[in-house]
Design brief:
The protein is an alpha/beta fold. It has one domain: Metal-dependent hydrolases (TIM Barrel), CATH 3.20.20.140. The protein has 13 helices and 11 strands. The strands form 2 sheets. An 8-stranded parallel sheet has the order 1-5-6-7-8-9-10-11. Strands 2-3-4 form a 3-stranded antiparallel sheet, with helices on one face. Strand 5, helix 3 and strand 6 form a beta-alpha-beta unit. Helix 3 packs parallel to helix 4 and helix 4 runs parallel beside helix 5. It starts with 11 loop residues before the first strand and ends in a 5-residue tail after the last helix. Bound molecules: uracil and zinc ion.
């Protein structure tokens, strides 16, 4: 970067993944494993060797082709330069450590957190006149069955002591019983106290029998299964009262919160009419949506506008509130943050920029009712504040 942009104009990608070399090596070592995940080398119809990544149960289409985009930091930086992305907050991609026995998950979490700190700290800065780096990261917890609370708390401490790690990414299974598991309460408490951002990201989708028997590639699990998994996990967290117990917990939902924004009033109504749940929470369910952060990986301006409307109504649903329920898109936009999902969704034919990136940038640029300041916030200003990236 030759010219220094004012920090209010930085483009920050908060949804961008890596399979760190140590993790990719583990996936390769599992090439002959009976169950996913693994990376295996197969031969294309032209007789060329090609690495393929298989991570989903019932993986469609023989997995996805993978290459250096998935592990090489230089490729991440080239991708960032191509799309004028100043800063990336990088996370290990799914399925994290979910498939490992507890002792191995523990060791690998600690190693990968150190690796990611190195990846960020030895990388470039935004410009010569600032301490702000181009790479920050989300660490990993060894969230697997039979892990002990004290190990989880140690790893939270490790992440919070690594200066370039500003949060942690997690899937939806917790230590086997989901994220509404009471056993995780000390972990939420420690994360809240450390001020780390939890990036909640899907992997398992929903029961694949819902997809029928036509070959639709990866479309149904990625377009519908992933966001619905996030919807379910976030809803269970709300129902468990996590946000009443840990009001300063900062939770970032992948893919603009999936279907939760569209279903939040129905959720509130179902709670109100359910004798088991009606008096459990301090607030109307819609209040808790305003506690969330959501990426802006929704690919359309109407969706981004709608999501910002829904988030902005939160305050009017605080218990006892009498505030107006007129949505305020500006207010809602403050909790939304640009992301790319790189290296997933590469173009299928040679193009300069990736459509999966430009479509999200175009969407941010054209939401009705967002000011230029709101758009700059979603592009980067909100991330600088959330992850405390100033200087
Ligand atoms: N596909 C995945 O497996 N993970 C992502 O994050 C995006 C697409
Ligand atoms: Zn992702």
């Amino acid at each position: 970067l030759t010219t220094m942009s004012p920090t209010s104009k930085l483009l920050v990608d908060i949804h961008t993944h890596v399979y760190l070399p140590r993790y990719a090596a583990l996936l390769r070592s599992r090439a002959g494993a009976a169950t996913v995940p693994f990376i295996r080398t197969s031969t294309t119809s032209e007789g060329l060797a090609e690495d393929r990544l298989l991570i989903l149960d019932h993986e469609p289409s023989g997995g996805r082709p993978v290459g250096p985009q998935y592990w090489d930091r230089e490729e991440k930086l080239k991708f960032m330069d191509k799309h004028s992305i100043d800063i990336s907050v990088v996370s290990t991609a799914n399925p994290w450590l979910d498939f490992l026995p507890a002792s191995q998950a523990h060791t690998l979490a600690a190693e990968l957190n150190d690796d990611l700190e190195q990846y960020c700290s030895t990388g470039p800065s935004v410009s010569s006149s600032t301490q702000i780096k181009r790479l920050y990261g989300f660490g990993l917890l060894p969230l697997v069955p039979e892990i002990t609370t004290s190990v989880l708390l140690d790893i939270v401490n490790q992440i919070s002591a690594l200066p370039h790690l500003r949060g942690l990414i997690m899937g939806t299974r917790g230590i086997g019983n989901g994220l509404d598991d009471g056993a995780l309460e000390p972990v939420w408490a420690a994360i809240e106290k450390a001020g780390l951002v939890v990036f909640l990201h899907p992997h398992y989708g929903v029961d694949s029998s819902a997809w029928g028997d036509k070959d639709n590639g990866h479309v149904l699990p990625l377009a519908l299964g992933f966001p619905f998994e996030t919807t379910t996990a976030a809803t269970r967290l709300i129902l468990s009262g996590v946000f009443d117990k840990f009001p300063n917990l900062r939770l970032l939902l992948a893919h603009s919160g999936g279907a939760l924004p569209a279903l939040s009033s129905r959720l509130a109504s179902c709670i109100d009419h359910d004798p088991v749940v009606a008096s459990r929470l301090k607030h109307d369910a819609r209040y808790y949506l305003g506690k969330l952060y959501l990426d802006a990986v929704a690919y359309g301006p109407e969706e981004l506008g709608f999501v910002s409307d829904v988030i902005s109504r939160s305050a009017s649903y605080a218990s006892g509130a009498s505030a107006s329920k007129v949505p305020n898109r500006s207010t809602g936009s403050k909790r939304m943050l640009f992301g790319t999902d790189h290296p997933f969704f590469p173009p299928l034919s040679v193009t300069d920029k990736w459509k999966s990136v430009t479509e999200n940038l175009d969407a941010i640029a054209s939401v009705q009712g967002w000011s230029e300041g709101d758009r700059d916030g979603v592009r980067g200003g909100n991330a600088l504040a959330l992850f405390n990236l100033q200087g």
